Amino acid sequence: MMLAPTAFLAVPTKSRMTAPALQAISDDESSSSDGSSSSNDEPPTMRIKKKSLRQALNLSDNHLPALVSEEQQDCWIVGHRGALYHDLENTLDGFQYCLDVGADAVELDVFLIADHLIVFHGGGTDENPGDLTDYCVGQANRTIADCTSLEEVQSLQFNPNCCEFGCPTSKIRNSPGIPTLQQVLELVKESKMVVKIELKGPGTVRPVLDLVTRMGMQKQCHYSSFDHSRIQLVRELHPELDEHGTHVYRTGALFKTVPEDFIALALAVGATEAHLPYSACTVERIQQIHASGMGSMAWFRGPVGMTQDTTETFHTVGNEDENMYRTVLETGVQQLCCNRPDLLVAMLRKTV
Length: 352
What we know:
Blueprint: H1 53-56, H2 70-73, E1 76-80, H3 92-101, E2 105-113, E3 116-119, E4 123-124, E5 129-131, H4 150-154, H5 169-173, H6 181-188, E6 194-199, H7 205-214, E7 221-225, H8 228-237, E8 250-254, H9 262-268, E9 273-277, H10 283-291, E10 295-299, H11 303-313, H12 322-329, E11 335-338, H13 341-348
Parallel strand pairs: 1-2, 1-11, 2-6, 6-7, 7-8, 8-9, 9-10, 10-11
Antiparallel strand pairs: 2-3, 4-5
Helix pairs in contact: 3-6
């Protein structure tokens, strides 16, 4: 069931993106573009374009092939929080759009609030996620965890001026609101679309697994987290294998920065996939992931982070244009968790 639209008010907080040097970065955007820790000592206005994305990914030359290969056509297309340049992120409208254009999966973020699983991202960091200050109207110095009921969550008004939102302002003002995880699962259950559930907030693992089991969607849902203890708990609760000897409950170890021992860290918590920032998906790392028996996924940053990358770091690609997607695909990565799933479907499937 779609949530009833709520009224939205513009407030004079952090404005939506109009310049490349914006400093606000959401929780999955605070690392440097190459997946390593970065320093902000250098003023943004002094930064210059430094390299090509091909060089960053250790690809062999500076020429894209004329055609997408058959192997690349099999790459999974995952809508990052839906299709956040078309519809407001983490909303039923965005997930429906992904269904309509033929994406293979959607990725979403889940919090447990007052015994309800809600789909929401918010600002902040992975250590302190769900910040509402710029995300919603009249919520200064609050996080989603401060809400005490589902009714309060669903009454939140998104801020049309928030720089984290990439969709048209009219879709922010007319958003159907914050959905529950159950609503999203009901939306996609009769389709073949996979739901990649990022366990964003504390206490989400058991309630999410219980809901998925009740709805009979065990094979249609995957789980991920930057907090690897959460996917470790998924594996401890559900170690079962299918007839092919693979885990029924698929889990992804998310990395913001990529340590040398990332493979060992992912395997230690029973992960079936490793999820790296797109700009850290070097050929060598992707080969390591596959050699370990895990699947691979490249995730793209939110609107602020992607604008920074394509104006301050990489001079050969646009903001999630065909050149960027084709370059990342050349690494052999198996899934792209992207913000423009419609464009990627058009490139790989020729159906849009």
